[in-house]
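Handout, page 2. Input:
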Amino acid sequence: MKYINTKILGLLLAVGVLVASCDSYLEEENMTSLSIGTAKSNPQTFDQLVASVYERARETTTHYQPDMYYQLEDLGTDIVTRGGTVSGTNDINDYVNFYSTNWTIHVYWSNQYSIIAAANVAIETADEIEGVESATKAIGIGEAKFFRAMAYFNLVENYGGVPIILKQVTTAQTNFTRESEEAVYTQIIQDLRDALAGVQETPNEYGRVSKDAVRHFLSKVLLTRGYKSFGASSDFTEAASLAETVISNHELVSSFESLVSIDNQRNSEVVFAYLFGTNSVSRGWGNSKHMMYKFRFYDYPGLSRTVQGLTPMPTPFYYSLFEDDDQRAEATFTRILYATEDYEAVVYGDTVNMVVGDTAMYFPKVAWSAAEKAAVPYKVINPGDYLRSDGITPVHYPMFKKFDDPTVPFTQPDQSSQGERDMVVMRSGEAYLIAAEAYLESSNTTDAAARLTELRARAGLTTAVAPGDVTIDLILDERARELAGEVNRWMDLKRTGTLIERTLSHNPHAAFNNALTSKHLLRPIPQTEIDNSGGSITQNDGY
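Output:
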């Protein structure tokens, strides 16, 4: 079989294995492998090329080593740190010895260009495939440009200016150069405006890109560009307007608990989600978010290993952000772990019994006294002890349940990342926060306060936010409570100019090493890309 090949800096990107469309997009079985050379007469080839862009975009969000993919989103911020005692160093979280040879930053770069390559194939080949209806072509090209824009946004915010490649690269090339950040943003916004014109308002297949998905992402891009020296004067106002359209079309779910329930995944609030589903073929690597923010709980009496956990952990600061009446806390993480197996032991001459369903561990919000802890038969860990070894585990904290997926039992450890939940990428809850931030930057604190008040009311917080109280820190705190684990926290802090201050103030490991500086507002360019280009791609300052 002759595959369609593109190449960027030594990475061969085969786009020959394609995915057939289905009732719930990318949720069913891979049905066919085609090549452009033999399939130009089949109009379905175009659909499959577009579906391959979806698949690449989805698969770069999760992996057999999923912690790597989340490291560049949350780790090294104010709300997520590494899951170990406060000692030693870590290149990504602590910003120590963050070299251009780091495997994570290399794979992240390669993944984004893989998406771009697949999008370029779909866009450039659209006119070569026979029998494709004009409406289908416009929709597919719009979808491909949407994903290409997302990939370039991830690249430009992590690495700064990068090579802009908009055509298939069919022969080995090395002479690539970095464009300016402004040029990359110009291309991103052009792609998104083209996508907005091309995609459907309401797609007939769940999981496909809608106009609201484009509006939502464009609002975030414009919000981000608005802070930059080359931002347009209208960026904040247009970001707010686009976010308002998304809000009007996607009603908030009545409660946060219902929003995150696995039984209510496809709700009114969802703007765009990656689908995985029950089919082991089309599921790919699976949704691994159920593994996030879990320590070695199974080392404690009465608790069996029911899920594989990832190493990063929320910071103590994150847990402190929730008011007593904030219903998002209970829906997001649990302070009580119940026994999953019977346990009996003799402790200091007394027999301790625990049966399934008994409390096995408890994380009180307010610290218990030594006497209170001694009076109960289960383990109690106070807020100040999350990062202190107790001789059983080095760290321990209220575990996330926001993404729990009971369809993935730990009886098959090699399948531990094979989650079936949809991965919600965009929802109107974030649109409220984008609008609030855009209003604040436009000096419209009245509308900013109104949007924050409405979102907080869904969480059971009835006190209105006053316009005079709206600050970027308030919005970032609200984003943490609402969106932890869902959106890229590192980009949020970078966008708002608060990465250094908030990380050093609230990330205990980063503060311990105190190495975070302005150079870390960009990641290092992967050394392999510099080497393969013969030096035409240059390194970021300070690396």
